[in-house]
Amino acid sequence: MGDQKFPRKTYSTPRHPWEKNRIDTERKILEEFGLVNKRELWKSQSLLQNFRAQAMDLQARLRTENPSAKKQFDLLIRKLSRYNILGEGASLDDILSLNLENVLSRRLQTVVYKKGLSGTVKQARQLITHGHILLNGRRVTIPGMLVERQYEDTIRFNPDSPVSDEDHPLRRAFEKPAEAQEEAKEEKNEQAAPVEESAPIE
């Protein structure tokens, strides 16, 4: 088990740290998902590699019709389904075809942003770390927490937080422009709609 004072690292660093293509790709992912450092990215990569390693191991064992392998496969699919990474009827090929975005999109930070509770993905991180977000009725301050499918609809503003007020300046800053853009779009559609000509008066 090891000493609790010295926990094991939950990620592995790249073998070649100075590859330009990889660095550029990582920088884009950090910006897209609002990650604060590459350590968070590497943790998600290690989690993805763990899923793939289990799938490759099960692929060989299932050919021998091993009953324990079938049970482990069902548990793995159930776990991925619980976090809405894959569906219930997924196969080993579906697990092997997973990419990093599939895992990062299930982080609490990303889900909060996609639900429209923040204007940017970085703002979502700030709201979470400052205790403004509830998950299943509990305050969660970990942006990298994976959100289970059954709790996704329970994400909301903390009622004890000033941000829960719809007139809070922070909410008005990103909610009002979205409403104004939607109204402008509807107005544009109305103007583009053909005008029916009235029948001539005899």
Describe this entry's structure for a reader:
With 202 residues, this protein is mainly α. The protein is built from eight helices and three strands. It has helices at residues 20-33, 38-62, 67-82, 92-96, 100-104, 108-114, 121-129, 169-192; strands spanning 133-135, 138-139, 156-157. Strands 2-1-3 form a three-stranded antiparallel sheet, with no helix packed on it. Helix 2 packs antiparallel against helix 3 and helix 6 (108-114) packs across helix 7. The longest helix has 25 residues, at 38-62.
List strands and helices in order, with pairings.
Blueprint: H1 20-33, H2 38-62, H3 67-82, H4 92-96, H5 100-104, H6 108-114, H7 121-129, E1 133-135, E2 138-139, E3 156-157, H8 169-192
Antiparallel strand pairs: 1-2, 1-3
Helix pairs in contact: 2-3, 6-7
Helix content: 40-55%
Shape: globular
Residue runs with pLDDT of under 50 for 5 or more positions: 197-202
Structural class estimated from helices and strands: mainly alpha
Q: Kindly estimate the percentage of residues that lie in beta strands according to DSSP.
A: under 5%
* Strand line-up of the largest beta sheet: 2-1-3
What's the helix-strand series? HHHHHHHEEEH
E-strand count: 3
Provide the domain count. Answer: 2
Q: How much is the average pLDDT? A: 86
Largest sheet: 3 strands, antiparallel
In angstroms, what separates the terminal alpha carbons?
95 Å
